[in-house]
Specification:
The chain has one helix and eight strands. The protein has about 110 residues and is α/β, with parallel strands linked by helices. The protein is globular. It starts with a helix and ends with a strand. Bound molecules: copper (II) ion. Copper (II) ion (CU) binds next to loops.
């Protein structure tokens, strides 16, 4: 009798654990969102952006001068962005993604997806 009660209690505990894991997964998915990097005064801001995997990053050129966003490893490459134009990329794999402006190679930035 007492063993049966114990087993039921254990079963409930495991069920709760399972529910907790599902909730955690759901909230992690809700965190996937769009984050913005501003291009202004010949720099990317923030220069290093850490995001959860699945996040879409949008670069917006707030400068009066055309810029590009080009992955050092060839993962993504924007067209030439004029003032207020945007470029987006979704980081679906974890890793470090350094990038630069191909017009002004001294402009560099990095996205870390984890
Ligand atoms: Cu540039």
């Amino acid at each position: 009798m007492s063993i049966a009660v114990l087993l039921v209690a254990l079963g409930l505990g495991i069920a709760e654990l399972g529910g907790g894991t599902k909730n955690f997964t759901a909230s992690a998915q809700q965190k996937a969102e769009t984050l913005e990097v501003k291009i202004d005064n010949f720099s990317f801001g923030p220069g290093t952006l850490t995001v959860p995997v699945g996040t879409t990053v949008t670069w917006t050129n707030r400068d009066d001068i055309p810029h590009t966003v080009v992955s050092t490893d060839g993962v993504f490459k924007s067209k030439v962005l004029d003032t207020d134009e945007k470029f987006s990329f979704t980081f679906s794999k974890a890793g470090a993604y350094p990038y630069f402006c191909s017009i002004h190679p001294k402009m560099t930035g990095k996205v870390i997806a984890q």
